[in-house]
Amino acid sequence: MSGRREPQVHEAARLMGQASYIYEAGCAFAIDGETTLLTGDLVPDENGTVYEKIEQRGIPKLLFGRYEGRLEYHTPWHTGRILSHLFRGKVDVEEVNALLAENGAGDLRLLDNGAIGRPMPAIEGRTHCYHLVPKQVSKAGAVTAHARARGYDPAECIGVGDSVEDLEVAAAVGRFFVVANGPEHDPGLRAAMPAWDNITVTEGAMGDGFYEAVVSTLVERR
Question: What is the pLDDT of residue 2?
């Protein structure tokens, strides 16, 4: 489950021996080579990819103009995307989504995919990674759809993440692990965590936290 492009997530899944994965922040999932889009009525066709259609409507230009110096493409990782736009910066997500609705783009939303370590001159503290996606897209929705397609019992599933958007997956799994770097660097994530009663914060950060979540779950279920 990742905000990254399909080829990147495919390779990570392959290295772990996985035949299924969720990519572009929940815009789609793949199982055994078959892709399921979760972008609703906004789909690729002869008029372009979902990414291109959003760009053609001038939505990124609108956001860059309104939040000059505070929002920009997350170069170079914004390239090669077909379902979502990837930004970095520091903005109020609710404010941005209200702006989208006011400008006839209520079918889209900006989601916060967590704090990153890429500084920007106009921003104090950590910048965040943001995805511009069709409104119904979410990682939680993709996890639910994937579990249903696989025939998994959500109560038997775990999730791991480090952002506010990741945290929403707690509603779709039996237990959710927040890796240590998430709450350490993101006050918004810390503030949202008390709303959930199935959360464990790992001692390790990033990959170490992921490893800890998987191994501790396997040990408990032996």
Answer: 94
* CA–CA separation, 33 and 87 (whole Å): 28
Which residue, 105, 134, 163, sits at the end of a domain?
134
Q: Exposed/middle/buried for 19, CB within 10 Å: 0-12, 13-18, 19+?
A: exposed
Task: Report the side by side order of strands in the sheet with 71-73.
Answer: 71-73, 85-89, 127-134, 108-116
- Model pTM greater than 0.85? yes
Query: Which run of H or of E encompasses 194?
Result: none
Instruction: Indicate whether 63 and 130 sit together in one domain.
Output: yes
Q: Decide: residue 62, CB within 10 A, 0-12 exposed, 13-18 middle, 19+ buried.
A: middle
pLDDT tens column, 57-91: 999 999 999 999 999 999 999 999 999 999 999 99
**How many residues are given for the chain?**
222
Supply angle C-alpha 24, 178, 131, rounded to 5. 25
Same structural domain for residues 127 and 158? Answer: no
Bond from prior residue into 134 cis (ω within 30 degrees of 0):
no
What number of other Cβ atoms are within 10 A of residue 52's Cβ? Answer: 13
Token pair 């404010």 is found at 95
Domain span at 95: 50-134
